[in-house]
Amino acid sequence: MGVQTYLMVTAKQVGGARWGVLPRAALAAVAAVLITAQTASAASFPAPETRVGVSTVAVASFVKAGGNVAAGQRRDNASAQPQPASATSVAAEAGDGATVQLFRHAGPDELADLKASGRFNLGPNSTGKYFAGNAEDAAKWGEWLNKGEGGVVSTSVPKSFADQLMYWEKLDGIGPAWFVPPEQLDALNALMRGIEYP
Amino acid sequence: VTRRIDEPAAHARVRWLTESEGGRAAPPPGPTYASTAVFIRGDDAEVVPDWPAGGEHFSVLLDFDGPVRDGVVDAKVEFMNRALVEDDLVVGSTFWVMEGRRAVAEARVLEVFDSPTSSVT
Fold first, then answer.
1. Spatial distance between the Cα atoms of A139 and A21, rounded to a whole number of angstroms
2. Mind listing the pLDDT tens digit for each residue in A123-175?
3. Which of A79, A125, A141, A188 best probes binding to B when mutated, by most B CB atoms within 10 angstroms?
């Protein structure tokens, strides 16, 4: 039995995300569907990401419906309504629903608390917890707030939870950001799938 | 937040909203506090949906001059990306200090300093 090739497709639509793993024979049909969807929604269609595993080659493509800010529109309006998570931080998991990976730069004190408790906790000055969509963006905010001291941690949460959070498509001209208010911190700690430390 | 502000973009008087006004149970102790700011521009309150949560947010850092007295403190102000706020950051302008969707303080700009256009590294 030779090496198998699969196409993993994440199609982000207004109604939510759907995905599947298809054999090579379905490539052409799926590509046609994606192109049709892209045209219909006038959405952006970033270059595919390629992940190479031991026995599979996965190609993930994202269709972002209405994700671009039109000319003249305000740049960083916060989302009053649940928003689709950024394509860069959405991971599809077989049989377990989509998740969103969140990144945060923790200063030295917060990093020590995270390692000790395994939870995101509020300090006396805390307003809630802000998260970035990738490690590079988190490091930029961390450089500004913590002079780079500490490190970037990450976790994954169900997309259904992330969609409930306040979300900026591009905060500070940097990138996507999420805010977890104090009243949702317990839910974050209960739903997140571990913490990855630097 | 471990950073103090050496070269502020501005100096502002910050009034923390009381809990009955929708603010925090108590003002933050400081000396530094980071959150987002939404500038109050003209009739934004009437025309921006879901104001002020639906307004344009900018990451802001406050460095208190001293303890909060009667809910008020003067503070040095810095923005993550100064270039994005240069049109709004003028003497007399005001912004909400937000905690997510909730406004927790109102800040009035007392002084604006010459500084680099962006603190983004």
1. 33
2. 888 889 999 999 999 999 999 999 989 999 999 999 999 999 999 999 999 99
3. A125
Read off the tokens for A29: 């049909």
Whether the model clears a pTM of 0.80, i.e. scores above it, the answer is no
- Distance between A7 CA and the closest CA of chain B, angstroms: 38
> How many Cα atoms occupy the beta-carbon half-sphere of A168 within 13 Å?
29
CA B86/CA B104 separation, integer angstroms: 23
| 8 Å CB contact between A49 and A57 | no
Q: Token pair 């802001």 is at which residue?
A: B60
Cα R_g (chain B), whole angstroms? 13
Q: A74 vs B33: CB contact, 8 Å cut-off?
A: no
Q: Does the beta-carbon distance from B2 to A149 stay under 8 Å?
A: yes
Task: Please provide residue A175's backbone torsions phi and psi, each rounded to the nearest 5 degrees.
Answer: 180, -175
Distances (CA, A) of B11 to A68, A126, B37, B89: 35, 22, 14, 10
Interchain contact, A181 vs B61, CB within 8 Å: no
Q: Do A125 and B101 touch (CB under 8 A)?
A: no
Nearest residue to B39 via CA among B26, B27, B51, B24: B51
Backbone dihedral region for residue A128 (phi beyond 0: left; psi -120 to 50: alpha; all else: beta): left
CA atoms within 13 A on the CB side of A89: 30
- pLDDT tens sequence across A79-110: 544 455 554 566 555 445 899 999 999 999 99
